[in-house]
Amino acid sequence: MQQAEAESGVMASKLLKKNMPPAAATKLGYTPPDGGWGWAVVLGAFISIGFSYAFPKSLTIYFKEIQEYFSVSYSQIAWVSSVMLASMYAAGPVSSILVNRYGSRPVVMVGGVMVCTGMVLASFGKSIVHLYLCVGVIGGFGLAFNLQPALTIIGTYFQVKRPMANGLAMTGSPVVLFTLAPLNQFLFDSFGWRGSFLILGAIVLNCCVAGSLMRPVNKTAGQKPKTEPAECNGAAAEEAATADTGAQSDNLLTEENQSEGRSQGCVHRFIDVSLFRHRGFLIYLTGNVVMFFGFFAPVVFLAPYAKHQGIDEYSAAFLLSIFALVDMFIRPTTGFLGNSKWIRPRIQYFFSFAVSYNGVCHLLCPLASGYTGLVVYAVFFGLAFGMVSALLFEVLMDLVGSHRFSSAVGLVTIIECGPVLLGPPLSGALVDIFGDYKYMYYACGVFMLVPGIFFFIMHYFNYKRLDEEKRQSMAAEMRTCEETVQLKMSQDEKADG
């Protein structure tokens, strides 16, 4: 009897601990080092992600001259960046499969070679279609092989410090853009757009150096025990419920068990299609599809908009540098904030605010007059864009867990390639129709503000549902433990009798 009561007390103390915030845990089967060589991996990801996102934006410096050279419209020239970004997103599943099969290091190095090849071939272009194929398709696929492996490998090295690591890695985009924007203007003045493309092809080979830093994590160090003794059947439920940090990780146990049970075949080895039954993933995907119609166009048209207002080329290019400079500092700051104990448990609300803030900035942009007004807009836009970019993949990892992130980001990018492809050309078409950029900024503001509000509402209900599921799981576990104690007590009574 006394032994049974003691066991009951131990179980009660364990259940009390479950009321506390869950400790960092993963389903990776090992404990991520959260440091060490991981910081070298963050440096490699910093370079790789930097080129992936900054390269299409920095090429906008050449748009006005290429537009005049080939005698094409605003909408047609916008397709260069759109095709490049869309190819980068469309190649997401291919990159996922290659990363799951070969690891991040070789995929990133191949991607660097592909972008270099595309830029070199584009320098000999005779038509705008040639640029679509070389810069857009070949270069875009190369950027996909740089982006996704860099994002995925961070999740294998970091768990507790993951938002911070992601924020630092995502800072590569504004740093590279801050460097490339004035450099591209200098290259154009010195060598023309053809010579500049040749030089940029050589510069982007630095992605191969970044890839060489992405050594696979040593999974034998700090290996997690596969099983641990438990006094009731709820131990397995506890482990499944703490797949990732924060409340977002406490997804329905039955959903996790069913989805993983049905995904053990050949398809699951590469792409986890069971994510389409994951509530948080569907919320993220729905909002992002709308958001990306207005996400990149304001950056793509920032320099052309300034030139349209009569601002000289170097000053217009400097707007991108200002935007990138602000973006550069806000991304790591956002990562540190996202890693704090106040924000991380409800980090989805932080992301919702960042998306809504972007929309407000674009809606107010037409009110900015003159170069000073554009500088102010560039500062506030840099803050908004950097916050979204720093959180964009962290919140997805928070929703699905590190163990499913590679498949999740592949599925997200293939679906998002549609709005990424159509966003800037549609915005350029508005400029062609009305002869004014303000309608383009109004449209982008709506495309950002609506999903921001959607995220706020849906994540409120999602967090509420997750809390209910957690309470139900704990109640079921309590009943199981009580039944175990009663069975043990009855067995002891029979033994005493």
TrEMBL record:
Keyword Heme: no
GO cellular component: a single term: basolateral plasma membrane
Residues annotated as domain Major facilitator superfamily (MFS) profile: 38-463
Transmembrane segments: 37-56, 76-99, 106-124, 130-158, 195-214, 281-303, 315-337, 349-369, 375-396, 408-427, 439-461
Annotated membrane topology: Multi-pass membrane protein
InterPro entries, per the entry: MCT (IPR004743), MFS (IPR011701), MFS_dom (IPR020846), MFS_trans_sf (IPR036259), Proton-linked_MCT (IPR050327)
UniProt xrefs under PANTHER family: MAJOR FACILITATOR SUPERFAMILY (MFS) PROFILE DOMAIN-CONTAINING PROTEIN (PTHR11360:SF92), MONOCARBOXYLATE TRANSPORTER (PTHR11360)
Family: Belongs to the major facilitator superfamily. Monocarboxylate porter (TC 2.A.1.13) family.
Keywords: Cell membrane, Membrane, Symport, Transmembrane, Transmembrane helix, Transport
Protein's UniProt keywords contain Methyltransferase: no
Short name of one Pfam family: MFS_1
Protein name as it appears in the record: Solute carrier family 16 member 7
Upper classification of the organism: Eukaryota, Metazoa, Chordata, Craniata, Vertebrata
Gene Ontology MF term list: monocarboxylic acid transmembrane transporter activity; symporter activity
Cellular location(s): Basolateral cell membrane
Catalytic function, reaction form: 4-methyl-2-oxopentanoate(out) + H(+)(out) = 4-methyl-2-oxopentanoate(in) + H(+)(in); 3-methyl-2-oxobutanoate(out) + H(+)(out) = 3-methyl-2-oxobutanoate(in) + H(+)(in)
Signal peptide: none
